[in-house]
Design goal:
The chain is mainly α. Helix content is about 55%, strand content about 0%. Helix 3 runs antiparallel to helix 4.
Length: about 220
Amino acid sequence: MAATKKASLMSRASAAARKAVGRKPSTEETAPAKKAAPAAKKSAPAKKAAPAKKAAPAAKKAAPAKKTAPAKKTAPAKKTAPAAKKAAPAKLVVLEQEDPWSKQELAEVRSVLNDDITRLTAELHEVEDDLEEMIQSGADGAGNDQADIGSASFERDQEMVIVNNARDMLLQSQHALARILSGTYGICEECGNPIGKARLMAFPRATLCMPCKQREERR
């Protein structure tokens, strides 16, 4: 019995083996096992952080100020030419029958004119002061009678005439000196003819010749 069971089991096993040999392996059995997917790619190494940019160098030191060009030495001022000597006054005109003016004669005329200017200036100040006092006293004398008022008015008028005459003579004397310096002394201011040395020696302030002066007085 045992031998029979053993033989039966062996025959079954051989039959099974034959079946297994004749059966085509299933795709699942024949397909080679897929290789396990490789482990996830290693994470890419972190990019190296870009090196920090070097801080911009501090602003360049301000360029040193350019040395100012040394001021040019000013050329020494040219020495001014010495003032030209005053030109000698032109020869003063005289009448045909008269001799030219001499230095002594001109000096004498200048002396007379300067004395007149000094005297007339003092007189003018004195007369002006007197006139001012008379005007003030006349304003205060409201109670005076008509005779006193008339007398005061007459005296005041006389003083005004004296003041005006003194002022005119002073101006004439100054004008005569200016004409001597300019070389026009002795020329008639009306007609342009010579006044005459003899007339000027007698009356240094004269500005008109005898004919013109006579015509002026007849007007």
